[in-house]
Amino acid sequence: MSSQQDPVIPWYKVTWVWLILGILGMSVVLGTSMLVIATKNPPGLLSDNYYDVGKGINTSLEREELAQRLKLKADLVMDNEQGTATLHLQGYSNPPQLLLNLISPTQPDRDRRVVLQPQGDGSYTGNLLDAIEGRRFVELIGQEGGKDWRLFEEEQVASGQRIQLGE
How far apart are CA 161 and CA 130, in angstroms? Predict the structure, then answer.
């Protein structure tokens, strides 16, 4: 009886071995390249000095508390056709001018700043450079007794719509 054996093939001639080694080699190369990219481009911090950010938050809260103590409320109407913003302020403050910031939550190039001047009837009026519509953070800043106060709301802004601040 003669038995016939299969010829022994060396490992480096087996296709499956090279496929597995190729996958392992590719994962090492990709992992190393990701490590190099991650170390050369670390994530940036919004602020390196958290103490200053905390002081800014406290200042903002102090301004809002002052507005509450002065019992300030405001009604704002923006007319895009005429390009005006009209505001009626109620409470214990009568500043020489007001600063109205209309902040876009996602597009900083759409932020607008309007200086409101007092009118004879007790209202404040300012000029809009362009039409303002959509979701905005509406911030009103004024001064009383040498200290700033602030009214702040998130609103959906439309022409002719009444926006109430300080509710």
Answer: 16
CA distance 101 to 114: 6
Q: Is 86 helix (H, G, I), strand (E, B) or coil?
A: strand
Q: Which two tokens stand for residue 21?
A: 């080694």
Tell me if 85 sits within 8 A of 165, measured CB to CB.
Answer: no
Can you tell me whether residue 27 is helix, strand or coil? helix
- Identify the three-state secondary structure at position 47: coil
- Say how many Å lie between the first and final Cα of the chain, rounded: 103
CB atoms inside a 10 Å sphere around CB 126: 19
Q: Which of 159, 57, 50, 51 is nearest to 102 (CA)?
A: 159
Segment 26-50, tens digit of pLDDT: 999 999 999 999 999 887 655 566 6
Closest CA to 62 of 147, 119, 167: 147
Q: What is the DSSP string of 49-72?
A: -HHHHHHHHHHHHHHHHHHHHTT-
Side-chain-facing half-sphere of 42: CA atoms under 13 Å: 4
Q: What is the mean pLDDT of residues 121-134?
A: 90
Coil, strand or helix at 156:
strand
